[in-house]
Design a protein that fits this description.
Blueprint lengths: L9 E4 L4 H8 L7 H6 L5 H21 L3 E5 L4 E6 L11 H4 L1 H32 L6 E8 L8 H16 L3 E5 L2 H9 L3 E8 L17 E8 L9
Parallel strand pairs: 4-5
Antiparallel strand pairs: 1-2, 2-3, 3-4, 5-7, 6-7
Helix pairs in contact: 1-3
Length: about 230
Amino acid sequence: MASNNTSAQVTTHDTDHHVHVAKTLSPLFVDDPPVRFILSSLSEEARLAYMDDYFGTLVKAAALNSAEFVEANDWDCTAVWLPPGKRIDNPWTWWSAGFVGCLWKLGVAGCKRMMIDYQSASDKCKHQALAGMESYHYLFLVGTKVSARGRGLASQIIRKKQAQATKEGLPIWLEATTERSRDVYKGCGFDVVGTFKLGEGHFASTGDKEDGGPGATIWAMLWKPEKDEDVM
């Protein structure tokens, strides 16, 4: 949980900000285990050079699927929310988002890690935990600048969405990619409803290649509104 409870200025922006959002988030995910896993076909130098383009594709795909961009304290913390019924891997926006460029850059194996290894495992957890419920908010990405961490900015962005979701009677889904982020989400009332491994037997917990490695752990997490719950 945050050590500083100072109220943040939380602002929502339209999808025209997708380029800025991508450039803001990209450096915050350089060492994120699933990102390292997905981009593992690239050399370290090539991976770092490709981060902005990769996040540009992800965030543009979100924008094309009605994403909501929310930031706290002048982009110290930035989140990308997908509304109910929308998906990043929507085949109708796949081309426009630039995923063909990902295929060219990462190859078939890299795209398999992104679209099958990760997404299929996540979908399986959703199917089990949501028990057929198809409407939910999805926290696709959230990142806080190193200099602003420990102030509870991500938590405040999340609680704003929880207030909306409570009125709608809808749950919120996310995947935590580190123990630290998992614990932040737990502090916001999320429960771990499943886990899955990326690259078990071939990758380290960091997402780097490692023969016999444990793989990178992903925690599937769900928050459900309770009647008369106060999330403000």
